[in-house]
Amino acid sequence: MAVYAAPVISSHGGWLGIVVVMHDITELIRLERVRKDFVANVSHELRTPVTSIKGFSETLLDGAVHDPKTAVQFLEIIHRESGRLEALIEDLLDLSRIEKEGFRLELTDVNVHGVLQQAVRIVSGRMKERGMQLFLHCPENLEVKADENRLVQIFVNLVVNAVAYSKPDTDIRITAEASGGMARISVEDHGIGIPEQELSRLFERFYRVDRARSRDSGGTGLGLAIVKHLVDLHGGTIGVESRLGEGSVFTVRIPLVRPME
Ligand code: ADP
User: Fold this and answer.
1) First and final CA of the chain: distance in angstroms?
2) Of 4, 195, 217, 260, which sits 20 to 30 A from 65 (CA to CA)?
3) Interface pTM, i.e. ipTM
4) Distance of CA 101 from the midpoint of ligand 1 (Å)
5) Are 179 and 209 in contact (CB under 8 A)?
6) Is the keyword Kinase assigned to this protein (predicted)?
């Protein structure tokens, strides 16, 4: 709480009283802490790949370049780490774009089945690499008021995570239906699951249950924060249920075009 007090004096110099202004700054302090944490996180996330790129390129310049086998190995690391930097910068720019005041979705009537098919197509290569199969159950006529590209982005992110945090050769199931004026779309995996105490923080920027696993899968730690913000912009909701060692279900609700469906 910040308190400001000032005496009130009449034009004749007489004492009239005191004006006291009390301002609740709890929220301001919280926001300032969030901002500082974010800057610290970004710096840390950027520093890790940069340190690696610098280190390996210096070793190459110091002579390792003359051993072709080592050179290829180091160049592969440099290539992978610059890809990580690129993904992080793209996610940061996208997050800042969609969080900016005045950002508007391009809302049209969008067919959910078509969106889910697009998302699945984009992730199908990764699924095949891991021997995973995806089952899609969605009525052909389900239509939502949405920004089509952003809706595809939401489900690409969720399916990429379902693939990254599952064991090879397991299944992913996407189920969509109309429910209470909304399209209810669930992405279910049989993966590593998420401990219950972590669920409430999952949509925070850079929050990860297992940092090493996220890095290995090429994650930036921003995917779910972007997904949550996009779902909010659509006037929808997102929730997650999970059992450690058994799998997770992420459920998105987006307003239907014709809510009576
Ligand atoms: P990342 O780039 O690390 O995947 P996200 O914001 O997409 O970042 O997800 C945040 C964290 O939530 C992940 O690091 C992971 O720990 C956890 N997570 C997300 N999706 C799943 C899932 N389907 N199964 C298990 N854990 C998940």
Assistant:
1) 49
2) 217
3) 0.98
4) 27
5) no
6) yes
Question: For residue 176, which of 119, 219, 135, 137 has the smallest C-alpha distance?
Answer: 137
pTM check: above 0.90: no
Alpha carbon distance 227, 162 (integer Å): 14
- Ligand 1 center to residue 199 CA distance, Å? 10
Task: Compute the chain's Rg from CA coordinates.
Answer: 25
CA-nearest residue for atom 21, ligand 1, is 161
Structure tokens at 206: 């850079």
Query: Distance between alpha carbon 122 and the CA centroid of its chain, in Å?
Result: 17
The model's pLDDT over 78-88, given as tens digits with 9 standing for 90+, comes to 999 999 999 99
d(Cα 207, Cα 223) in Å, to the nearest integer? Answer: 10
Ligand 1 binding pocket, CB closer than 6 Å = 161-162, 165, 189, 191-192, 194, 202, 207-210, 214, 219-225, 248
